Amino acid sequence: MTDRTAEPQSTEGAYVESGAEFTRDTHYIPTRITADGRDGYPVEPGRYRLVAARACPWANRAIIVRRLLGLEDVLSMGLCGPTHDKRSWTFDLDPGGLDPVLKIPRLQDAYFARFPDYSRGITVPAIVDVPTGQVVTNDYPRITLDLSSEWTRYHRDGAPDLYPEPLRDEIDEVADLVFRDVNNGVYRCGFAGSQEAYESAYDRLFARLDWLEERLADRRYLVGDIITEADVRLFTTLARFDAVYHGHFKCNRNKLDEMPTLWSYARDLFQTPGFGDTIDFTQIKQHYYIVHTDINPTQIVPKGPDLSGWLTPHGREGLGGRPFGDGTPPPPPRPGEEVPAGHGA
Question: What sequence ranges are listed for the domain GST C-terminal (predicted)?
Fold first, then answer.
């Protein structure tokens, strides 16, 4: 996700406001795609295109959920490159720099097609209505929940229930704490405009990570004994922690691989089909270190860290749990949707 306050569309140093605490703009396009089409956009196979970027943790959630639920045949996906300019994410990975379905060079074209005067950030993930070329929604927390609850008719056989009714209150509660202190907390550290704002965010981040370390010590997953939406939301931040947030965002009390429980939990998910095979460490590092020029003016991308640890045994099977509940793992990524060789662990 990129929004006007969190990830401004600029490569020329507009991420940190001197003297200010980082505040995320959380106002997104609220339109929903639902089974009954109450907002004018009914769930229909082939009608919509998910636009994402592997570099972005918020978009990475949608990539994971789409794959776990087996929605590839009904919801196509376009991928933007890891860097962007002040105007928009671009389709620079595609031949000719055009998305092959939407036929546009910049995601902003889909936003402006629906809202000509759109003044907020051009964000990923976004779902675009292919027939009109217009953005439908960029409400990233709602997108994944709706994929789980509104697109059920088109889930693959064996798709897991990532948002089960009996666990929803607890999932929402845990996900909110994780968002405020961890998902967004790393940005509050990295984009802090004062020492005081940075230290406050730093303390909240590591207090919550310590809480998670304790919570996960005797349970395999965050809520219940299955993978849920809460795990997806935490995972995409943990996957980026040592590669980016520890150094680039100064979240450096310790690395993830120095927190035994969280590190084994993250490896457990990484080695679960649908999680680690969506992670492109090369694009992740390129995005943060090249785009945030006021934090890293040289735009030098670090060679490290060593990624081989992600594939080492995690030992969490002994805690029990059923990763996919009564369902089954997803098949391997579709041709053309694989992380490029050499970009993963």
Answer: 161-288
Instruction: Give all domains of the chain, ordered by start, each with its CATH number.
Output: 48-154 (3.40.30.10), 165-319 (1.20.1050.10)
**Strand (E) or helix (H) holding 209:** helix 195-215
Task: Enumerate the known binding-site residues.
Answer: 89
The residue among 156, 158, 184, 152 whose CA lies nearest residue 325 is 158
Active site residues: 56, 187
Please tell me the distance from the alpha carbon of residue 157 to that of residue 42, in angstroms, as a whole number.
22
Is 127 in a helix, a strand, or coil? Answer: strand
Contact between residue 7 and residue 84 where contact means Cβ atoms under 8 Å apart: no
- CA quadruple 136, 142, 144, 148: dihedral sign: negative
pTM of the model: 0.95
Q: Which residues contact 311 (CB under 8 A, 6 or more apart)?
A: 267, 270, 271, 345
Could you report the per-residue pLDDT of 283-323, keeping only the tens digit for each? 999 999 999 999 999 999 999 999 999 999 999 999 999 99
**Which residue ranges are tagged as binding site for glutathione?**
89
